[in-house]
Amino acid sequence: MQCVKVLGGVLGAAALLGLGIILGHFAIPKGTDLPAPSASASQDLDLEILEAVMGQLDADRIRENLRELSKEPHLATSPRDEVLVQLLLRRWQDPESGLDSAGTSEYEVLLSFPSQKQPNRVDVVGPAGGILFSSQRSEENLTGEQGDPNVVPPYAAYAPPGTPQGLLVYANRGSEEDFMELYQQGIKLQDSIVLTRYGGVGRRAKAVNAAKYGVSGVLVYTDPADINDGKSLPNETFPHSWGLPPSGVERGSYFEYFGDPLTPYLPANPSSFRLDSDNASGFPPIPTQPIGFKDAEVLLCNLQGASAPAAWQGALGCDYKLGPGFRSDGIFPAGSQVNVSVYNRLELRNSSNVLGIIRGAVEPDRYVLYGNHRDSWVHGAVDPSSGTAVLLELSRVLGTLLKKGTWRPRRSIVFASWGAEEFGLIGSTEFTEESFSKLQERAVAYINVDISVFANATLRAQGTPPVQSVIFSAAKQIRAPGPSSLSIYDNWIRYSNRSSPVYGLVPSLGTLGAGSDYAPFIHFLGISSMDIAYTYDRGKTSARIYPTYHTAFDTFDYVDKFVDPGFSSHQAVARTVGSVLLRLSDSLFLPLNVSDYSETLRSLLQAAQQDLGGLLEQHNISLGPLVTAVEKFEEAATVLGQHISALQKGTPDPLQVRMLNDQLMLLERTFLNSRAFPEERYYSHVLWAPRTGSVATFPGLSNACSKAMNTGPRSAAWAEVQRQLSILVVALEGAAATLRPVADLW
Amino acid sequence: MQCVKVLGGVLGAAALLGLGIILGHFAIPKGTDLPAPSASASQDLDLEILEAVMGQLDADRIRENLRELSKEPHLATSPRDEVLVQLLLRRWQDPESGLDSAGTSEYEVLLSFPSQKQPNRVDVVGPAGGILFSSQRSEENLTGEQGDPNVVPPYAAYAPPGTPQGLLVYANRGSEEDFMELYQQGIKLQDSIVLTRYGGVGRRAKAVNAAKYGVSGVLVYTDPADINDGKSLPNETFPHSWGLPPSGVERGSYFEYFGDPLTPYLPANPSSFRLDSDNASGFPPIPTQPIGFKDAEVLLCNLQGASAPAAWQGALGCDYKLGPGFRSDGIFPAGSQVNVSVYNRLELRNSSNVLGIIRGAVEPDRYVLYGNHRDSWVHGAVDPSSGTAVLLELSRVLGTLLKKGTWRPRRSIVFASWGAEEFGLIGSTEFTEESFSKLQERAVAYINVDISVFANATLRAQGTPPVQSVIFSAAKQIRAPGPSSLSIYDNWIRYSNRSSPVYGLVPSLGTLGAGSDYAPFIHFLGISSMDIAYTYDRGKTSARIYPTYHTAFDTFDYVDKFVDPGFSSHQAVARTVGSVLLRLSDSLFLPLNVSDYSETLRSLLQAAQQDLGGLLEQHNISLGPLVTAVEKFEEAATVLGQHISALQKGTPDPLQVRMLNDQLMLLERTFLNSRAFPEERYYSHVLWAPRTGSVATFPGLSNACSKAMNTGPRSAAWAEVQRQLSILVVALEGAAATLRPVADLW
Fold this sequence. Notes:
The structure is a homodimer. Chain A is α/β, with parallel strands linked by helices. Chain A is 34% helix and 15% strand. Chain A is built from 20 helices and 19 strands. Chain A has helices at 47-56, 59-69, 79-92, 176-184, 203-212, 224-227, 293-300, 381-404, 426-434, 436-442, 468-476, 488-495, 518-524, 556-563, 568-586, 596-618, 624-649, 654-667, 699-708, 716-739, and strands at residues 101-113, 121-125, 131-134, 156-157, 165-166, 168-170, 193-197, 217-221, 252-253, 288-291, 337-341, 345-358, 363-373, 411-418, 443-448, 458-463, 497-500, 504-507, 529-535. In chain A, strands 1-12-14-13-15-19-16 form a 7-stranded mixed beta sheet, sandwiched between helices. A 4-stranded antiparallel beta sheet of chain A has the order 3-2-11-5, with no helix packed on it. In chain A, helix 2 (59-69) packs across helix 8 and helix 17 packs parallel to helix 20 (716-739). Chains A and B meet through strand 1, strand 13, helix 9, helix 10 and helix 18 of A and strand 1, strand 13, helix 9, helix 10 and helix 18 of B.
């Protein structure tokens, strides 16, 4: 999982509820003979098959998958990564439990690695030039796995090489506001080294913001306050708990975009046009290196200067000062500097995707895709193997039904194991670039399960509105793991909910950012997408993410002992995803409830009216056309819903159903505009592009208003507001047109 | 018709052939009862219906349509244009012969008109400042129609206002080469007025090229050598023949792009974001005015200086000199200058499209579109009313069958009457911008018939390869007009043919430029498109286009007497288009022969290999991946063709046919890449974008090679060659993927 902010957005109130319905009596023994599949045009979801699949998804097998997948470090393109490619291929080609076909596709992509000969290092250099302190080059070997020679030392992928040296300054999270604060306090930043902590802003942003102030090098660490609920002692952390050990270091990609850096919009085939790496953009501007909090403590707790603001303080057990430089009564002599030596290098490497297909019986040209990445930073038990372990179990169960001749889905199912996600969703992005047309024509939905289990409290799902209903349907019919007898749905609603004007209280579906491989599918291709996992009780931890994220402590034992003992949460995710996948691939009518977009559009519109209406009015910009467009969408969606209900009551003609399903499938595509955000690579979806503006409304409008706000009335920035508004109106009108009766006059 | 070069490209050898097969016994009387339509999923083309339609298409009714349509000038957005909107609506809403529904859509678009108060003028000003000669402000009233107060005086639409004055220089066609020649001959161009003749390069290009040399004003005329086969006397021209009278002036749009100039990529709705007209691009840089050859003769035959090169000479009966300025022994005193006074102004106007729909019985969500523009420069009998007269007759015949309950097509048919085409394909472009998603999802093909009859010799068709076969099928079954008993196809092959590696000798299908409303459909949306007309015997005339093009002499009588007496060519076009339309809308299997793209790709590839291979090799750029991609396409197309043949022999499942038809329909879309040509507005089709490079191969590659040729090996221009090659390879691989079996593994 490539992650800036995994959490946030979906955390609602957790309310104690009464008993839910007891569901999910998955008692059908393996091997039960089910009726042979019929390939009639009216083939619909078979609840017996669904129940069989639910029953056959096996927690122990998921556990064994995970053990195998996380046995060794499998950094993208490493030998072990290739071993896992073969493992996936073997599984998907198994004559008893495999798919119709499986294969690999390879791309030549630009990755970044630390030098083996010259390890990256962080030193404190005394006034006389002697090295007074050096950061740990690797994590402590607490469980044996950390000593594996294939553990990649901590580094900031794509950070440029360099050996800057200067006085140390503490810069909190390295946000624009943080540097502004330092600047206003008169802290000299020019030629300094800044120490920042993970969180708040993206990895690369810390270096970008720093470089604007003349900073020459950046350190990044994880504060125990942000990851361990404050705990920092060795005996409070892994292997004694799930906490991050003091030597643990979060690796990560510091690349701004996603996809191969040298081949934007083109698949990274060997013959493809490549930018010179000098012309590639999106890398951090200055050397950057992550360190553990044990090392950070030594640096931070010896700083001089004013105390950092209260919000900047952490859990390292000292008062965090700002610097610059170390205090004279600390362990380093006054004038000591910090040297950051980064020897990362860029390398073209071959990275593989593995793809497996179950051919649809009735509509083989409609694809339901389900994928996860394969590469990890180290052993990657949670990230991404917890997802792949589920993927393999689900493909085994479905493959077995297939090979027995018991079942063949109505539509085709595509399983995918993406390469090089950790470097920036590279495998999945190259795939979407290569298969752009085919996917735009035929993809029904993309399901992503990266980290399948963060923790055992509740389901967490992110997606665009049309997938809400199918996830809810699945979640209602599966029992939540653990002692409660609630359904996953009823458990979920206790942890995270919202009040829907249409449905009343429902679980909160989160929105899709760019944290995993769904990003190119939704943002670049406009394919309805979702990401599913089991996650925390936010009443019990405020950790940014699970503590050993991207460290050498994310191992099988970590999962087995602390994350999901018994693997019942893994099983719950497998069932949820299995049910969603079967519903999407087998239902006669696609279970994409497009009218759920009405609620989203109305709420984005209301935010625009409330928080931007006055400002826009002052500039003679009317929201009227946007209001009309939203109304048109709502009306078209309502009428279409009625049409579907009517059809479902009769015995609809297969072509009628196909036409209707095409409307449902293609709706998400209508929100794409490749010219809407020329500065945003791949982002074309006018509803889900990144929002930097302060108002939580349509991103193009919000961002443009933020930029225009302090400009004159005839500025280019105000013209851009109007352009964004028009782009939005055209997209919504186009979406409504796609939903209206297909022979309606223009 | 908005036209730079209407002819060219499709002119093959005309060979005398023996007798063809006698076809087209269209003897079914009007009103014959045909069987009632069956809306079964297997509904296929009904040859009886086809024959009935052929028989009912009536030359006299086309003639009456034309008389009504061309009765008065109907410049875009003029009151008469609105009258015709109502006429079309009435016809399409007629209870006996109308369509299922009809309506209008209005756009607020930027047009350019001459001032009524201050007429544009071209004067010769003597050394003392007196006006010695003035050009005609309007065409001579030879037949009564030219005196209509609604005749718009000749002007260059979108040329900026201004009153430049200077010595006159003759600049041939105003091409880059022409100005280079003048420059090399030492002719002073700075502050001059240049006289150019139509043809060779686009209208605006003359002004753009001139402005680069400091020219301050441009005159454009039509030389009798280029339009009248040399004839220039009043009694040799209309109304005595079809020739252009000496006072005739070609009007036209001098706008570079197509679509509304202020709303690129957005529909020009009243609320849409608009560029400031100062920020709009694509207008001519300097005042420009067209004049007749009678006026041009006075100017040109009095020039002094060296004789123009032989290729620059025309048919005005004097030796064309270059200038600058007039010869002292001519009718103007030495030092006389030419003053060009242009008072054009830009205006936002409401322009309407009229749309009519016949709802498909089986697949209402598949659209076959058939359109033409409605607006003319003056009476517009040939351009565009000859096309609209055919459109109305075909919609009447089909509407009558529909209203009688005799027939309903399998797919929906959309009839369109576009507004403001003459200003730059504005109505059709705005339509494609507004309906982008719906059309991309559902449009099967776009048929354009603008000028339906240029002359009576032969069919002329332009289109992308998949439409070749359906046009051939139609043309083979209809008798050519005139005394011969050949089919349209057999007649066509005599005038224009090529040797196909697959089929042997076949008529030449021309390629689509941007001369009429098909442009946004093919270039922007990737919808297989075609343009159909009857045209000249190139052995009999070398006219650039029909002589009264865009003048006040393009009247009903002109057509009735000279272009198509008896209207049998109009009828032939109506039958051809009717047959194509019915085949596309009614055939169970879409009659789009995608494998005809193989031949095109192979020939473009061969040109690249032959004419660029060496150059590319020198720069270490391999055509290998392109060769492979073309081979993959060929193979996929062949296999798909076999699959179709096999299916056609059995009784295929309706869903199977639908899936296959989706492949055929969507193939053209796979060639789009919105990022391929960032400097070309709307052009996204990687095979049919404008080619400026000298090698007749894939346009992106050809253009990039032309630019790179004289740059260093590591230039950005060579990187662009590689980028274009990759874009092409990805598109072709994507196209092949769309044609391959739909459940094939990636």
